[in-house]
């Protein structure tokens, strides 16, 4: 063992650059794998812990208006699968009446309700994940606003309407297992019972949340059907526990998924590089290996000798990667910790990365062992003669007319006859280009206004929500009258949302959310088919169509007000709202059955959208008016922030990989071509010429790799992104590319990195002379 370690130490000294480059590869692989798994472990622990401590409902139904408490109690009593129930009274305050640091929350998308602490389940927790308690004159602020607006403990929130004003001191930041994420459009503030009673006498509108816990094995779909069939209060959105889980997974898990995906790709690249390095090293040491076999060393001993180096590198990479993942993992999981805490199973964030690092080590070691043993199968005579190396040497013919462009001719000739040697570096460059563009394109897509189409609606400038109110029709009429006479508006369309019943895949009847309106005004891009053109057609969201097994042309039967309505499925579209389960059809809903009106508005070119939004807010004080760009930014803001971090990390890692691979490759290739370099110099090529030839070879490979990487990022990247969003209801995403950045700045950065690295890495050619070859 001491002899083996001594030989390994000598090998490290002799091949410092290659060893360092390979070590960095393995360290990056281990670091990313451990970081991604630490983020995943933290997320799992955090969400599990929040659910255990806050006990969110498995089904909740929002409702505005009056209700019959006795009827609700009878409903609960007559359905045995209900384990517990709760009625949460919320006082909805208009955002313009909530003031922080002199600014109202009118520009915020969220609906804000003021509540007291619940009893039984659905607790609001403080930042220590304890049941939050506030005294009179105090308020608990959702962690969403603490993050977005910078609200801190000790700050003052002012409620103001007409002559009434009340100041509340922020005593705690609260976590809400039901409404934490930005994708949930409502947020709850915690106040004392006395303060809630006082505030309700001056402002706000009561809204109720009917919440349920179910016994094991019970279906939320069955509860929803029974609830609606019993005509229980339902003027509001319904949310299931599975939908909350889906929103949390999308909000917090996207970063972990991308990091783990990058680490897996990086491991594959590391294995490619390992394979190339081992084969190149052993090819150069054929004679030495033959001598060791000749003096009686067994294949097992020789394998140990060569494998020892990689065992040491893997151990070093594993330790550094695991330790490095602690700060990096905590940095990338800071959002889920902020919103959910560390959870009750913290061992996950320590054990998951350890398992990942161990698996990485085993994969690398098995790969090394397989490659080394394959190279030792040749006989002593073959190894001593170097026959295989001779067979693999390529040849190219110089033009008989002479060398008009000598450096280009030599560079392309050597590329032609030795292209296999450049395959690994080509694949690494492809991966690096892909790695830079994929997170960048994902982020650009989410931030683009057209991403609204993946929420099941056409692209527009402004969105007006009129929802869950006893004055719903009056508000709708006032909004339409205002928009009709507005010369700055080019077009608008109103859509009403209601529910019908349909049978799911297992034959159970459940309620289906349907949007009714002129779909041609703000059209969608349909996966297949088109928008409904008459009252006999219905378009389904992708997730609905998948679960129901429906395709364009199939019939679809629904029940509304006891009447069966038969439609032809005319189109399938993507929608990540409401759990991805929606439909579009021309159904004439009764006014009492309309849950919400949504109006989409386009303004003339040159009209400032923000200014127009403020104007509409003053005219429509009871409606929520939001620029669509702001709607996307607030709904997906946390996700895009995380994507920005991943994008920056991907760019840095990719450029570092390009530099390391170029250095490592140049070291190997110049060492193997030292005789050819010396001969070139003897026949008149200068050091500068030879370095230019190396540069041409590498830059040509890099240029081709950038093209392939860009194509893969746009094609395979769309498949990856679509797969990630498929659980939310979007299966096919068209990545939106920023051309200047993607097709100019990024390739330029990659080519510049390679160019500088070649200049530095080819200085070694000065050391090769023909006299050294003659001496050998």
Automatic annotation (TrEMBL):
- Domain ABC3 transporter permease C-terminal: from-to ranges: 261-368, 650-764
What do the Gene Ontology cellular component annotations say?
plasma membrane
Q: Which of UniProt's keywords are assigned here?
A: Cell membrane, Membrane, Transmembrane, Transmembrane helix
Q: Where in the cell is it found?
A: Cell membrane
- The portions of this protein that span the membrane are 252-278, 310-328, 348-368, 422-440, 648-671, 698-721, 741-765
Q: Name one Pfam family in it.
A: FtsX
Membrane protein topology class: Multi-pass membrane protein
UniProt keyword Cytoplasm present: no
Task: Work out whether the entry's keyword set contains Transmembrane.
Answer: yes
Source organism, top-level taxon: Bacteria
Q: What is the protein's given name?
A: ABC transporter permease
Which species is the source of this protein? Acetobacterium bakii
């Amino acid at each position: 063992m001491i002899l083996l370690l001594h030989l390994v130490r000598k090998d490290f000294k002799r091949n410092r650059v290659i060893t360092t480059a390979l070590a960095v590869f393995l360290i990056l692989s281990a670091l990313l794998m451990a970081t991604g798994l630490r983020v995943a472990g933290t997320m799992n622990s955090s969400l599990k812990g929040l659910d255990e401590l806050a006990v969110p409902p498995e089904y909740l139904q929002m409702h505005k208006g009056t209700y019959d408490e006795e009827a609700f109690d009878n409903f609960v009593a007559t359905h045995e699968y209900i384990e517990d129930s709760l009625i949460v009274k919320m006082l909805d305050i208009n955002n313009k009446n909530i003031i922080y640091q002199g600014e109202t929350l009118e520009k915020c998308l969220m609906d804000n309700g003021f509540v007291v602490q619940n009893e039984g389940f659905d607790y609001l927790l403080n930042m220590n994940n304890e049941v939050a308690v506030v005294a009179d004159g105090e308020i608990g602020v959702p962690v969403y606003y603490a993050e977005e607006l910078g609200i801190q403990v000790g700050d003052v929130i002012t409620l103001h309407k007409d002559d009434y004003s009340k100041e509340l001191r922020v005593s705690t930041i609260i976590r809400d297992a039901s409404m934490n994420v930005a994708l949930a459009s409502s947020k709850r503030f915690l106040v004392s019972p006395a303060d809630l009673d006082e505030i309700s006498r001056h402002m706000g509108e009561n809204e109720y949340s009917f919440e349920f816990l179910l016994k094991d094995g019970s279906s939320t779909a069955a509860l929803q059907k029974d609830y609606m069939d019993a005509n229980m209060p339902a003027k509001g959105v319904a949310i299931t526990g599975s939908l909350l889980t889906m929103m949390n997974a999308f909000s917090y898990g996207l970063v972990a998924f991308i990091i783990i995906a990058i680490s897996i790709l990086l491991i594959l690249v590391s294995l490619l590089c390992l394979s190339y390095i081992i084969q190149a090293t052993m090819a150069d040491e054929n004679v030495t290996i033959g001598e060791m076999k000749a003096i009686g060393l067994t294949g097992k001993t020789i394998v140990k000798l060569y494998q020892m180096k990689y065992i040491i590198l893997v151990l070093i990479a594993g330790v550094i990667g695991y330790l490095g993942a602690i700060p990096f993992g905590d940095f990338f999981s800071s959002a889920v910790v902020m919103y959910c805490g560390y959870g009750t199973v913290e061992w996950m964030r320590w054990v998951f990365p350890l398992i990942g690092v161990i698996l990485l080590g085993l994969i690398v070691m098995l790969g090394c062992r397989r490659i080394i043993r394959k190279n030792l199968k040749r006989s002593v005579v073959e190894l001593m003669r170097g026959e295989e190396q001779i067979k693999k040497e390529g040849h190219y013919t110089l033009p008989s007319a002479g060398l008009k462009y000598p450096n280009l001719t030599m560079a392309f000739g050597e590329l032609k006859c030795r292209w296999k040697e450049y395959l690994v570096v080509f694949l690494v460059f492809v991966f690096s280009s892909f790695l830079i563009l994929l997170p960048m394109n994902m982020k650009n897509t989410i931030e683009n206004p057209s991403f609204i189409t993946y929420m099941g609606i056409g692209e527009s400038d402004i969105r007006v929500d009129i929802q869950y109110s006893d004055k719903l029709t009056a508000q709708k009429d006032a909004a339409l009258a205002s928009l009709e006479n507005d010369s700055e508006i080019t077009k608008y369309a109103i859509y009403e949302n209601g529910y019908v019943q349909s049978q799911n895949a297992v034959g159970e009847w459940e309620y289906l959310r349907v949007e009714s309106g002129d779909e041609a005004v703000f059209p969608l891009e349909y996966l297949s088919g088109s928008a409904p053109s008459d009252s006999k057609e219905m378009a389904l969201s992708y997730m609905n169509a998948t679960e129901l097994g429906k395709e364009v042309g199939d019939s679809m039967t629904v029940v509304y007000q006891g009447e069966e309505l038969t439609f032809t499925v005319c189109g399938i579209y993507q929608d990540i709202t409401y759990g991805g389960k929606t439909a579009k059809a021309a159904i004439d809903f009764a006014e009492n059955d309309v849950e919400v009106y949504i109006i989409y508005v386009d303004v003339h070119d040159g009209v400032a959208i923000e200014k127009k939004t403020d104007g509409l807010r003053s005219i429509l004080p009871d409606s929520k008016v939001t620029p669509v760009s702001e709607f996307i930014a607030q709904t997906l803001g946390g996700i895009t922030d995380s994507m920005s971090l991943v994008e920056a990390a991907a760019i840095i890692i990719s450029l570092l990989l390009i530099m390391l691979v170029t250095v490592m490759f140049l070291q190997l290739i110049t060492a193997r071509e030292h005789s050819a370099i010396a001969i070139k110099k003897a026949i008149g090529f200068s050091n500068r010429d030879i370095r230019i030839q190396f540069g041409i070879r590498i830059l040509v490979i890099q240029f081709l790799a950038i093209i392939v990487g860009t194509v893969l990022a746009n094609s395979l990247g769309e498949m990856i992104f679509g797969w990630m969003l498929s659980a939310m209801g979007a299966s096919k995403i068209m990545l939106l590319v920023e051309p200047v950045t993607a097709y100019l700045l990024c390739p330029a950065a990659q080519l510049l990195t390679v160019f500088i690295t070649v200049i530095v890495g080819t200085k070694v050619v000065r050391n090769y002379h023909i006299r050294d070859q003659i001496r050998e």
